[in-house]
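tool=predict chain=A
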Amino acid sequence: MMFSYNLIRSNRKTIQIQILSDKTIEVRAPKYVSDKRIRSFINSKEKWITAKIQEKKEIVQIPINHFYVVGETFYYRGKQYILKSCDESVNKSAVYLSGNNLIIQTRAKTPKAFQNTFVRWQKERAWEIFNELFEECWIHFSKYYPNHKKPFLSLRTMKTRWGSLSKKTDLQPAKVTLNTLLICSSNNCIKQVIYHELCHLIHPNHGKGFYEIFGFFVPDWKTLKKELEYLFVIKD
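tool=predict ok
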């Protein structure tokens, strides 16, 4: 079987194959290696490539677009809220929860004003809560793996991932990036993602060893994964 792939040549010494989230095959190879040698190497990895493409069958499509109109539904920390507008005249924008309502107060009563206020509040709350949960998970994780240095934590809104791990270099420690939109889910779901990324410090790939230690830290990870998939849309 002959796969189509994107070839990137550089000064590297080895050939590397990577399957991207959209199932694209990306091949990195030394400048001096012939096309024939590259094709032969790819063909020799046919079973591995096929298996990895199958793993990429489901791509998480996280809904990040709202209309920001009164009555619209929002999730926050695993609970569903209805957007309401504060009718009072205010000088300072704010967001607060009251019962099942997520109330946004702004000077201008427009979707754009609601969006700016909500997104700012969402990021602030995510940073505060994620830091607390990350510290909790790290304290537990480091008891079993004390030789690893605590990664930096960063937040970013991502369309297809709940989290990622950038491995350490000679100059910088590893970095765990969490999707800001995880603030929509429960604490347990967020901690599941944190442990997932921390376990990649030990096992970079999703092999048997990875799931053994991941299952140790999060025994109910399959249930929590389904809970996340309920909040977000899964696209085949």
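The radius of gyration is 22 Å. The mean pLDDT is 87.
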